[in-house]
Amino acid sequence: MVGYRWQTAGHVALTAESVAILDRLPDWTSVGDLRDRLTPGGDIADAADLLRLLHSLGLVERDGDAPSNAEWMEWSPAAAFFHFSTKNGRFPADFGQRDRELVEKAALHPQPEPTKRVEGSRTPLVNTVPLEGTLQTALTERRTWRRFSKQPVPAAALATVLDRTFRVQARGRVAGQGEVVVKTSPSGGSRHPIEAYVLAWNVEGLNAGAYHYDGATHELVDLRRPVSAADIPDLLAHQTYFLGAGAAVIMCPVFARTMWRYGHSRAYRTVLIDAGHLGQTFCLTAVALGLAPFTTMAFSESKLEALLGLDGVLECPIYVAGVGMPDAGAGASPGRWHAVGG
Questions:
Q1: What is the dihedral of CA 119, 120, 126, 129, to 10 degrees?
Q2: What tens digit of pLDDT does each residue of 141-157 get?
Q3: pTM of the model
Q4: Which of 305, 200, 296 lies closest to 252, judged by CA?
Q5: Secondary structure of 320-332 in the HEC alphabet?
Q6: Are 327 and 292 in contact (CB under 8 A)?
Q7: How far apart are CA 23 and CA 279, in angstroms?
Q8: How far apart, in whole angstroms, are the C-alpha atoms of residue 271 and residue 98?
Q9: Around Cβ 184, how many Cβ atoms within 10 Å?
């Protein structure tokens, strides 16, 4: 007996005819039943051969098979399909190609307005309690940097960024459920699913390589995997400007933490939002320390998984943040954009 199971971590090219056949397998089905559904009175051997082919492609499972990605079952099909189908995006070898395409597009089809204006009576707002000091500076000066100096990132500064972003700040217990941790950023259900892995290639006093950041002990664990500046563009979708930075943090959710509490696919949103919270905390802390931060969603999940020794199912790269030292010549334009008057 077999049952239709689309949920795999790979991609299989299908014809319209194949999709129609899979549509006939919504539940557990015997070879004879499938033959009767597809070609009543046909050769049962043909139906058996078809099922063997589908099974070899990972599109159906046989009764008694070990569950495939069983941990994702409660988040299927919506979240599981989105997660696995959007992995390993295709990025051009020349990352500037997309910018050139957008210049051409803007000439024919201008981008939407960056702000929305609604008609109605207006009340001017006055900041009666203005922010001052480090937070104000970090908020107003945060930029995504793509221009870096050759100076190494101070190890103490990187340690502080990791501490303020990923370190466990306090612990507690939920009655009858178990331990929870508190960090500087919020997390859906206090699950804090995201682990931090550090790629260092220009950090003062730190050997180049891949590390796991232990948020409980505030330590870097050497994964004994070599990393150099030359590896960064290949890992980060050919973005050559980031090789001038000094370190990158790969955020990787341990999905089981969130799945344990929330048995529905909507909870996948909380994992994505958690990564956004951490990204902003990371960048603001870096700016406050005089570093040049960046974040990116353009990377190869499979290459990072191989480098970090992750299975890509229970734990997978989802967001990347990094730091370098600012290029003094960048001025107000450290990235793609340039300031305009007004």
A1: -90
A2: 889 888 899 999 999 99
A3: 0.79
A4: 305
A5: EEEEECECHHHCC
A6: yes
A7: 41
A8: 28
A9: 14
